[in-house]
Design goal:
Structural class: alpha+beta
Oligomer: single chain
Radius of gyration: 21 Å
Order of helices and strands: EEEHEHHEHEEHEHHEEEEHE
Number of domains: 1
Number of helices: 8
Length: 330
């Protein structure tokens, strides 16, 4: 059985209700069904407009990434800064407390209930983050994350490995493009992003007549808004990390269809999901990897040769390998 998912994206159509055609009964082997749904434009910060991002990792990490053609997106609860998801929630909650007086009752209660539902869904959802940077040669990030910065093109989709029913993460993917977005560090910009999210909730609830009741938790409108919320929270980070100029790709795994893998780190057992190049018409699943930049290390020449050999062996023959000019201090 194959699944043909036909989403709509871009600006919302005021004559269309958000919804989807359910899975028909009685399908047999080789049958095809189509799920069609309409997605309002996500009230999220614009996507990253740069052509390249740099993923900092260790030599061991680079070996795994190149040899498996996949990148690991880590559970939001297992990032280096364990308070990240809490900060995003607090910013959105504080913004709502300041803005709720602008909405009449009972519409105010409906928006508040939807925000409560979105926040609760973040506790249940499997939100995974792939971290990168705009900066190609950052000494601080080499020290913190590893000796290799992998250069990745941003115009190629990276997604979860195929699920039997890709509806939820397809919803997220289509509504946010390829998904790379800058992390928001400035307080004013964080508040503006939270305000846009809340106003987006209000528009959709009003458009669908949900001014008295936000509706069922499992309907398409509620799911969409929870996706918006879970997409914004990982983009809000403390200003102390602003020098990293981080860019993130957020993916939300589907419970029951995408089970996470696990690795060991200083934090204990860390859940993660592999992200791969989504190749629709060919069998080339290589990552959009165009280069690797080595940080300051004790033996740069053999490290460069080994990295070059690794890339060539796995089909990345056009990728460049460069070295930092920063001297090594052991």
């Amino acid at each position: 059985m194959t699944t043909d998912v036909v989403p709509t994206s871009g600006e919302e159509d005021p004559d269309e209700e958000a919804g989807f055609e359910g899975i028909p009964r009685g399908l047999g082997p080789g049958d095809t069904f189509t799920m069609t749904f309409n997605i309002p434009k996500a009230p999220l910060p614009p996507g990253y407009d740069g052509r390249i991002v740099f993923h900092y990792t260790s030599h061991q990490g680079a070996l795994g990434i190149v040899s498996t053609h996949s990148l690991w997106a880590t559970s939001i609860r297992s990032l280096n800064d364990g308070s990240e998801s809490l900060r995003g929630r607090e910013v959105i909650r504080d913004c709502w407390e300041k803005r709720k007086r602008h909405y009449p009752e009972p519409f105010r209660s409906s928006i508040a209930a939807m925000l409560d539902r979105a926040e609760a869904s973040l506790d249940e959802a499997r939100v995974y983050v792939l971290c990168a940077s705009e900066r190609a040669d950052d000494l601080g990030q080499f020290r913190n994350y590893g000796d290799v910065a992998l250069a990745l093109r941003t115009d190629v989709a990276l997604n979860l490995r195929s699920d039997p029913i890709p509806f939820p993460h397809t919803l997220y993917w289509v509504s946010t493009g390829y998904g790379w977005r800058k992390v928001i560090y400035a307080k004013r910009a964080q508040e503006a992003a939270a305000r846009a999210l809340i106003d987006g909730f209000a528009r959709e609830l009003e458009r669908h007549g949900r001014t008295k009741d936000p509706g069922a938790p499992n309907d398409i409108i509620s799911i969409t808004m929870c996706w918006w919320y879970a997409s914004l929270v990982p983009l809000i980070k403390h200003s102390a990390f602003a020098q990293e100029r981080e860019v993130r790709l957020v993916r939300i795994a589907t419970g029951g269809f995408t089970e996470p893998s696990h690795r060991v780190s200083c934090l204990g057992i860390v859940p993660y999901v592999p992200l791969e190049h989504v190749a629709e018409k060919d069998d080339d699943h290589r990552l959009p990897l165009i280069g690797a930049h080595l940080g300051p290390i004790h033996h740069p020449e053999p490290a460069e040769l080994g990295l070059r050999s690794l890339l060539n062996t796995h089909g990345y023959t056009d990728a460049t390998v460069t070295r930092t000019a920063t001297p090594f201090r052991g």
